[in-house]
């Protein structure tokens, strides 16, 4: 019998440290599949974040660099400018990209840096204890909003993709999800487009991925996927934004 489904060459066969039902594993595989299909593995450099994916380099079998919390796009900018022939991407969570790294994110996008950004939005701080993130939904309970996020005290969820789409240096932004097989396929197409844009030197591209965090949402993996579909995607509509 022919084997038709394999581990991507760009993905290491290692035991996961992620919680059951976490979406990072799906996103890791999609990135690896795209890099293999585009045949760019030998010239790809990933910038790992501080957050749940801090050891993404243990999963990907290509060059990776670590960045201080929130500084991934600053590091990516330096590498891309020094080695423009490489394909450089950051892989960042909502705390890393949209909180401590907001300045780096906005200015890299505004400069139109020829980079690819994979932005994981799970609406909570996962690694540090489940605190409120910039993307936490109104009324969503977290370790620091035990009664639910209140716009009067904590403001509104930050829609970073819509914010960045206003900048002239941005080429492409799409919001996708991994809550169903159909949406996973759409997510892969968006990731491939974002990498293709960089290869073709067209400018800054970002793919936002709505991803489940069953542990801090206090839901089963199945219910977490349903929550993305029924609740989260209403606040963060899926589709191409720019």
Description:
It is a single chain. With 242 residues, the chain is an alpha/beta fold. The chain has helices at residues 24-37, 72-82, 94-100, 102-110, 151-154, 160-164, 181-199, 214-217, 221-235, and strands spanning 44-48, 63-66, 87-93, 116-121, 170-177, 204-210, 239-240. It has 9 helices and 7 strands. It has a 7-stranded mixed sheet, with helices on both faces. Strand 5 (170-177), helix 7 and strand 6 (204-210) form a beta-alpha-beta unit. The radius of gyration is 17 Å and the shape is globular. The termini are far apart.
Quick synopsis:
The protein is of the alpha/beta class. The chain has helices at 24-37, 72-82, 94-100, 102-110, 151-154, 160-164, 181-199, 214-217, 221-235; strands spanning 44-48, 63-66, 87-93, 116-121, 170-177, 204-210, 239-240.
Would you state the CATH class?
Alpha Beta
Total domain units: 1
Task: Briefly note the structural class of the backbone.
Answer: alpha/beta
Largest sheet features: 7 strands, mixed
Low-confidence stretches: none
Average pLDDT value? 95
Q: Record the strand order, biggest sheet.
A: 2-1-3-4-6-5-7
In terms of topology, how is this protein built?
Layout (H helix, E strand, L loop, with lengths): L23 H14 L6 E5 L14 E4 L5 H11 L4 E7 H7 L1 H9 L5 E6 L29 H4 L5 H5 L5 E8 L3 H19 L4 E7 L3 H4 L3 H15 L3 E2 L2
Helix pairs in contact: 1-7, 3-4
């Amino acid at each position: 019998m022919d084997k038709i489904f394999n581990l991507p060459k760009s993905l290491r066969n290692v035991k996961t440290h992620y919680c059951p039902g976490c979406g990072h594993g799906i996103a890791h595989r999609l990135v690896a599949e795209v890099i293999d299909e585009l045949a760019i593995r030998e010239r790809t450099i990933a910038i790992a974040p501080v957050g749940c994916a801090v050891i993404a380099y243990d999963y990907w079998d290509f060059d990776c660099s670590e960045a201080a919390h929130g500084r991934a796009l600053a590091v990516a900018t330096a590498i891309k400018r020094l080695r423009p022939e490489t394909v450089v991407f950051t892989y960042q969570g909502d705390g890393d990209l949209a909180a401590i790294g907001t300045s780096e994110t906005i200015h890299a996008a505004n400069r139109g840096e020829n980079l690819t950004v994979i932005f994981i939005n799970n609406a909570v701080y996962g690694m540090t204890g489940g605190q409120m993130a910039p993307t936490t939904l109104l009324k969503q309970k977290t370790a620091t909003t035990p009664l639910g996020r209140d716009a009067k005290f904590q403001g509104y969820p930050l829609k970073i993709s819509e914010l960045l789409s206003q900048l002239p240096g941005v080429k492409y932004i799409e919001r996708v999800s991994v809550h169903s097989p159909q949406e996973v396929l759409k997510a892969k197409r968006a990731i491939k487009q974002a990498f293709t844009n960089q290869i073709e030197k067209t400018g800054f591209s970002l793919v936002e991925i709505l991803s489940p965090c069953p542990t801090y949402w206090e839901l089963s993996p199945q219910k977490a996927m349903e929550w993305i579909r029924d609740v989260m995607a209403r606040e963060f509509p899926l589709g191409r934004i720019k």
